[in-house]
Specification:
This is Eukaryotic porin/Tom40. This protein is mainly β. Helices cover 3% and strands 66% of the residues.
C-alpha cells in the first residue's frame, strides 16, 4: 500500500539499514512454522552473555486484517492489531503490552501520492500524542515528527527531516532532539552488487561529531558481506548466507582498534523459515 514519499521513518532508512542492520554481538536463533490454517508461529531465543531472552510470536491474517501476539520471557504479552486499507490509503494499528496498562495506543497512517501522515495517541487519561508528516514525491520530501505530552504540556521531541533521491543516490538530513543534534546520511548504489553509505552526526551542545562509513557487497545471489567503521576506531564486518529461501545464517564480528588487547566480539544469527 505504501506510495508517494512514505512515512517519516523512511527518511534516512536506507543508510541506517546499511550501517546498522544485522550487526550484533550475541547469539540469536529463530524458527518460523505455519499451521494448516495459515497461522505463523515464530520462536526466538537470544543469548546475551549470561542472560537468555526468548519469545514466541503468533501471526494470523485474514484478508486486510492481521493479528500479532508475542509472549516474552519477561512475562510480557504484546498484542498488535493491524487493519490495512479500511479506506483507500489508510492503515489502522492498535497495540497494547501487558502488564503495562499504560502502553496501549492507537495509530492511524495515511498514504498519498504526495504525502504520508502518521498519528498515534495512548490509551491513558493524559496520553502522549505523536504526529509525523511527510510531503513531497519519491525524489524529494520534507517531514516532521512531533510528540506532545498532554500531562506536562511539553513537547517530548520535535524532529524534522529532508530526503533527496535521484537514480542510485539517496541523501538525507535530519534535525533531532529539538534541534540539538544534526544527522546527515548518504547511500549510493555503485554497481549492481555493491552499495556504500555514510552517516555524520553533530551535537550542537557538546560539539561532538560521530562518523560512520560502510559498504555492502553481494558475493553471489545468496551471499552478502558488509563492513563498517566509525571515528571511534570500532570496525564491524559480517557475512550473511541465504542457504534456503527466506532462511539466513549470519556471522558478524567487531574489533575496537583502541582496545586491541581485548577479544573481538562475535555474533551468530540463524533464522529458519519453511
Amino acid at each position: 500500500m505504501v506510495k508517494g514519499p512514505g512515512l517519516y521513518t523512511e527518511i534516512g532508512k536506507k543508510a541506517r539499514d546499511l550501517l546498522y542492520r544485522d550487526y550484533q554481538g550475541d547469539q540469536k536463533f529463530s524458527v518460523t512454522t505455519y499451521s494448516s490454517t495459515g497461522v505463523a508461529i515464530t520462536t526466538t531465543g537470544t543469548n546475551k552473555g549470561s542472560l537468555f531472552l526468548g519469545d514466541v510470536a503468533t501471526q494470523v491474517k485474514n484478508k486486510n486484517f492481521t493479528a500479532d501476539v508475542k509472549v516474552s520471557t519477561d512475562s510480557s504479552l504484546l498484542t498488535t492489531l493491524t487493519f490495512d486499507e479500511p479506506a483507500p490509503g489508510l492503515k489502522v494499528i492498535v497495540q497494547a503490552k501487558l502488564p503495562d496498562h499504560k502502553s496501549g495506543k492507537a495509530e492511524v497512517q495515511y498514504f498519498h501520492d504526495y504525502a504520508g501522515i502518521s498519528t498515534s495517541v495512548g490509551f491513558t487519561a493524559t496520553p502522549i500524542v505523536n504526529f509525523s508528516g511527510v510531503v513531497g514525491t519519491n525524489g524529494l520530501s520534507l517531514g516532521t515528527d512531533v510528540a506532545y505530552n498532554t500531562e506536562s504540556g511539553n513537547f517530548k521531541h520535535f524532529n524534522a527531516g529532508f530526503n533527496f533521491t535521484k537514480d542510485d543516490l539517496i541523501a538525507s538530513l535530519i534535525l533531532n532532539d529539538k534541534g540539538e543534534k544534526l544527522n546527515a546520511s548518504y547511500y549510493q548504489i555503485v554497481s549492481p552488487s555493491t552499495v556504500v553509505g555514510a552517516e555524520i552526526s553533530h551535537n550542537f551542545t557538546t560539539k561532538e561529531n560521530a562518523i560512520t562509513v560502510g559498504t555492502q557487497h553481494a558475493l553471489d545471489p545468496l551471499t552478502t558481506v558488509k563492513a563498517r567503521v566509525n571515528n571511534a576506531g570500532v570496525a564491524n564486518a559480517l557475512i550473511q548466507h541465504e542457504w534456503r529461501p527466506k532462511s539466513f545464517f549470519t556471522v558478524s564480528g567487531e574489533v575496537d582498534s583502541k582496545a586491541i588487547d581485548k577479544s573481538a566480539k562475535v555474533g551468530i544469527a540463524l533464522a529458519l523459515k519453511p
